[in-house]
Design a protein that fits this description.
The structure is a single chain. This protein is α/β, with parallel strands linked by helices. The protein folds into two domains: about 1-160, Rossmann fold (3-Layer(aba) Sandwich); about 165-285, N-(1-d-carboxylethyl)-l-norvaline Dehydrogenase, domain 2. The chain is built from 13 helices and seven strands. It has helices at about 10-20, 40-45, 60-75, 90-100, 115-120, 130-135, 135-145, 160-190, 195-200, 210-225, 240-250, 255-265, 275-285, and strands spanning about 1-5, 25-30, 55, 80-85, 105-110, 125, 155. A seven-stranded mixed β-sheet has the order 2-1-3-4-5-6-7, with helices on both faces. It is elongated, with a radius of gyration of 21 Å. This is 6-phosphogluconate dehydrogenase Gnd. Keywords: Gluconate utilization, Oxidoreductase. Belongs to the 6-phosphogluconate dehydrogenase family.
Length: about 300
């Protein structure tokens, strides 16, 4: 099976490698010549036999919309486009309509797994019609974790459902990270606790709060026990905001997710140990950039 993959950044680059390990013939395109397989979208289309499947893995918003528009001009009727980026679900309908006018199918795919997905597999939530999703199943099966398909993949509904599910997933992620971060700060503030990292590590097996995020917090603490090298400034990539907006629209109380989002806003005004922990977690699971703390004497960083 062959696939065109647009966007070879932190996620896309590893996805190309995982797909190739599962015998999917991937032709990748990226503006950076050092990672791309072809020099242009036109060359990507020419390199794939029809009917084509092209996966878009670029930043959400204008870049994704422009890429979809450009693909509409180089692909052919019967082709299929999958948007695997963190697009807002409200963008999926217009994207699907644009491509449908050219006879091109559209599937939206929420993807979770960060930089660890290469080896662990990616959690996938997709939206689209049954035929389009079925056609792309070999690709989804190659990307998802080993084991039962239902444990790492869901056809969540029609176009837009995949990105909606991923939006809610990321909203939950905000709340989980901040709960761990607050617990870390409380431990660090108490003189009775002489081994903060050890306490957090002791939670990783057998306790009711164990999780992969907790494992990553331990890893981050082992690398930088006091988070001296990380600023508490924590960015948000949009999904938390959209989740809160949807909670308001549906009158669903979401105080934990809302508080976690607002805490990120607060991090841009004042520094705190909790927000350093959140920033470190985002870097661990997703390779997201962190803002380094101001240089201290002699660091030369």
């Amino acid at each position: 099976m062959q696939l065109g993959l647009i966007g070879l950044g932190k996620m896309g680059f590893n996805m190309r490698e995982r797909l190739r390990r599962h015998d999917i013939d991937v032709v990748g395109y990226d503006p950076r010549p050092e990672v791309t397989d072809v020099p242009s979208l036109e060359a990507l289309a020419e390199a794939l036999p029809a009917p084509r499947i092209v996966w878009v893995m670029v930043p959400s918003g204008p870049i994704t919309r422009q890429t979809i528009e450009n693909l509409a001009g180089v692909l052919s009727p019967g082709d299929l486009v999958i948007d695997g980026g963190n697009s807002r679900f409200t963008d999926d309908g217009p994207n699907a309509e644009l491509l449908d006018a050219k006879g091109i199918g559209y599937v939206d795919a929420g993807v979770s797994g960060g930089v660890w997905g290469l080896d662990n597999g990616y959690g996938l939530m997709v939206g689209g019609n049954d035929a389009d999703v079925e056609r792309a199943l070999p690709i989804f099966d190659a990307l998802r974790p080993e084991g039962d398909r239902a444990d790492g993949f869901v056809h969540a509904g029609p176009v837009g459902a995949g990105h909606y599910a991923k939006m809610v997933h990321n909203g939950i992620e905000y709340g989980l990270m901040h709960a761990y971060a607050e617990g870390y700060e409380l431990l660090a503030a108490e003189n009775l606790i002489t081994d903060v990292t050890g306490v957090v590590r002791a939670w990783t097996k057998g306790t009711v709060v164990r999780s992969w995020l907790l494992d990553l917090l331990v890893k981050a603490l082992q690398e930088d026990p006091d988070f001296k090298d990380i600023s508490g400034f924590t960015q948000d990539s949009g999904e938390g905001r959209w989740t809160v907006e949807e909670a308001i629209r549906h009158s669903v109380p979401a105080p934990v997710i809302s508080a976690a989002l607002f805490a990120r806003f607060a991090s841009r005004q004042t520094d705190s140990p909790a927000m350093k922990a959140v920033s470190a977690l985002r870097n661990q699971f997703g390779g997201h950039a962190v803002q380094r703390a101001p240089n201290t004497e002699g660091t030369g960083a």
